[in-house]
Amino acid sequence: MPDIRMYTPDGPAAPVEAVEVATGPAVNAAAGQIHIGARGSAYVPLVATPEQARELAAALLRAADEAQAQVKDTYPTVKAGELRRGDVRTGERVITVDRVRIDGDTVHVTWASDAGRHWTQSYATDADIDLRRRA
Fold it and tell me: What is the separation of C-alpha 66 from the centre of its chain, rounded to a whole number of angstroms?
């Protein structure tokens, strides 16, 4: 699996850290476990079960969404007719495009919330929709 390059919070002059991820048996992970290691001035190894790794990934995704929501000038704006499954709308909550159906000059968008709710809204094809993230 590829290394993920990250910077330390000390600033751009700090050395680049690399996070490595491997499935066991490898390094200090047994079969059925995931090894996560951070290389830098010291090496920090972690071992996780698949469930713990999924929980960490979900927490990182939520944190990334929250951090990205704070940077409002980076939002892309697209026309309703250009929406695609997986696009995430701006706002306090994560709302994702589940389905898009175009009927003439009207776009029917089915949204899914992070709480599992679904609803459909209709827009003019050329209506501007602010997104937090493109799929």
Answer: 10
Cβ atoms of 27 and 44 within 8 Å: the answer is no
Q: How far apart are CA 37 and CA 94, in angstroms?
A: 30
Do the Cβ atoms of 37 and 23 come closer than 8 Å?
no
The residues, ordered by sequence, that sit 6+ positions from 30 with a Cβ below 8 Å of its Cβ are 24, 47
Alpha helices in the chain (DSSP H): 50-69
pLDDT in tens, 111-121: 999 888 999 99
Query: CB count, 10 Å around CB of 132?
Result: 21
Residue that the structure tokens 């002059």 belong to: 13
pTM over 0.85: no
Q: Quick check: helix, strand or coil at residue 13?
A: coil
Residues 90 and 131 sit within 8 Å (Cβ to Cβ): yes
User: Higher pLDDT residue, 2 or 86?
Assistant: 86
72 falls in which pLDDT band (50, 70, 90)? Answer: low
Strands 106-113 and 43-48 turn out to be: unpaired
Distance in Å from the first CA to the final CA of the chain: 23
